[in-house]
Amino acid sequence: MAITSCLTNTFKEELLQGHHSFNASGDTPAGSTFKIALYSSNSASLGTTTTVWAAASTPSADPTDTYEVTTTDSGYSSGGSALTNTGVAKSTTTSYTDFSDISWTSATFTARGCLIYNSSTISGLTTNASVLVINFGGDKTVSSGTFTLQFPANDSSNAIIRLTSS
């Protein structure tokens, strides 16, 4: 078991089927609702074959059965938090999208990686469908403070999701 950074296989298939919309809030039509869940250990099994976010059977257990960050006195809620999509853009050879930075305040926990998933109810799409997995490369710990995830610049070289042709 490990956290492997990747776009998930089911996401790539569902994207081609038209199930994910990365339009920014306020766009017409509105985009899908994406969330981010944090995981406390590299023992979490997240990678290309991850299909959905699954709730821990006991979210306050330490560790939870899914290794999602525990909800006990941590400033974290099971399932994570909603992300703000910055919309879709393109350059000559790359289409891309990204999210705004996100923070958890009054937080006390350790996170090793995350899962971004689509929590929208869409006909033909499994609820809480996985999009991408990120391994932070090591444990990131916060104690009675603010835990912030900074997404890269929303451009063709750095955005968190990029589709490129050569």
Protein model, in words:
- This protein is mainly β.
- Helix content is 5%, strand content 39%.
- It has a 5-stranded antiparallel sheet with strand order 1-7-6-2-3. A 3-stranded antiparallel sheet has the order 4-5-8, with no helix packed on it.
- A hairpin with a 3-residue loop joins strand 4 and strand 5.
- The longest helix is centred in the N-terminal third of the chain and has 8 residues, at 9-16.
- The chain is globular, with a radius of gyration of 16 Å.
Layout of strands and helices, then pairs:
Layout: E1 6-7, H1 9-16, E2 34-39, E3 81-82, E4 85-90, E5 94-99, E6 102-118, E7 129-149, E8 161-164
Antiparallel strand pairs: 1-7, 2-3, 2-6, 4-5, 5-8, 6-7
What would the keywords be for this entry?
8 strands; mainly beta; 5-stranded antiparallel beta sheet; 3-stranded antiparallel beta sheet; 166 residues; 5% helix; 39% strand
Main-sheet strand order equals 1-7-6-2-3
The structural class is: mainly beta
Describe the oligomeric state of these chains in a short phrase.
single chain
Radius of gyration: 16 Å
- Which percent bin holds the helix content? under 10%
**Percent of residues in β-strands:** 35-45%
- What is the makeup of the main sheet? 5 strands, antiparallel
Number of distinct beta strands:
8
Task: Output the number of helix runs.
Answer: 1
Give helix and strand order, one letter per element, not per position.
EHEEEEEEE
Mean pLDDT: 93
Spans of at least 5 consecutive residues whose pLDDT stays below 50 are: none
Q: Quote the distance from N terminus to C terminus.
A: 34 Å
Coarse shape? globular
